[in-house]
Amino acid sequence: MKLTQYGDYFYLYLLLLTFIPAIVLALKGINIKYYGLIVSIAMIYLIMGKTIGLIMFLMFLAGEITLIYGYLYLRKKNDSRYLYWAFLFMSIIPVIITKVAGLTRFAPYIGFIGLSYLNFKAIQIIIEIYDGRITEIKFIDFINFILFFPTLSSGPIDRWKRFEENLNSKIEKNEYVNEFLLVGLRKIFIAIIYKFIIAYLIDTYWLLNIPKEVNIINSINYMYAYTMYLFFDFAGYSLFAIGTSYIFGIKTPENFNKPFLSKDMKEFWTRWHISLSRWFGDYIFSRFVLDSMRKKRFRSRFTASHVAQIITMFIMGLWHGLTVYYILYGLYQGVALVLTDIYQRKSTFYKKNKNQKWFNCVQIAITFHIVCFGMLIFSGYLFK
After folding, report:
1. Between the CA of residue 217 and those of 141, 212, 214, 221, 223, what are the distances in Å?
2. Which is a Gene Ontology cellular component entry for this protein (predicted)?
C-alpha cells in the first residue's frame, strides 16, 4: 500500500494517530525527536511502498551521507575551492539525473517522491561546511533533518542550523501547548479548508470545465483558474506540513504570506514559496552578486544583480523540469524582476506616488496579472 502525503482522508487519519504519542511525550517534557524519527521512517515506507522509488531513496540517502561526512572530514584539512566544487557537483547529481530522465522513457524508474527537496537539504549542508558555518554534524540529528516526514514531498525547505537548534531545544508544557500544538492544529484546520474545499471546488467546477481548445478566451480563463487552484492546493499542502511539524516540535518556516497582495514582483517572491525563493536567493543570487563584485565582472552592482536575477530564475525554471515552458517561466520571472528593479529605480512617477494608497492598489492589480500570466506559462497549457 502507498499513501499520498496530505492527499486523502486516510492519510490524515494516520497522521492524527501519530500525533497522539507526540503530544503526550511533549506534555510530559520528553523530547520528541526519537519518536519523530521512528514516525518519519514508517511514513516514508508507507508513502513510497515496496517500489523502485524506495530503493532509489535508500541509495540517495547512503550517497549523500557519504558525501557530507566525507567532505566534513576533508574540509577540516583542506579548504580547496576545487575540492568544494567537486563535492558540491556530486551532491547535485541525483537531481540532475532525475530531470534528464524526465525527458526519457526511463522517468518512472528514476527518482522518488521528494527527491528535489531532500537534495536541497544536502546541497545547503555542503555549502555551509565550505563556508565554515557547519563544523560538526550529529548523526541522529542529521538523519532527523533529512528524513523529517512532514516536509518530505514538497517542502517547505528548512535550514540545518535552525532545525538542529529547534530539534534539541527543551520545550516547556505551556510553551508547547500555546506555541506549537494550538498553532499547529490551527494551520492544519486552514489547510483542510484550502486543499480539500477551496482547491477542490476550483478544480472540479472551474478548471476541469474549461474547454480543451486553446484560444484567447479559454487561455485567459485557464490562467486565472490555474493560478488560484495552484495557490490553494500548494498553500494547503504547505500548511499541512508546517502544522504537522509544529506538533512534532519543529517550527518549519512559512511558505506563503498573502502573495496576491504583492505590490511588485520582488515583493511577490518574498511571499510566494518563500522557503524556495530564499534558498535560491541565499545560495545562488547573493553568492553570484558578491563573487561578481569581488572579481569586478560588471561595472555596477545593479548589472550584477540583474544578471544574477536572470540566472537564478532560469535555474529555478530548470529545477522544475527540462521542458520549454518551465525554462520560459524561469526566464519570464527573471526578466520581470529586472524590469521591476529598473522601473523602481529610474521612474520619477513611481518615486512620487509609491506611498499613495490608490497607486498601491493599482500596483497590486498589475502584479497579480503579471503573476497569473507566469502561472499560465508554468502550467504548460499554451504548449499542448
Report:
1. 53, 11, 8, 6, 10
2. plasma membrane
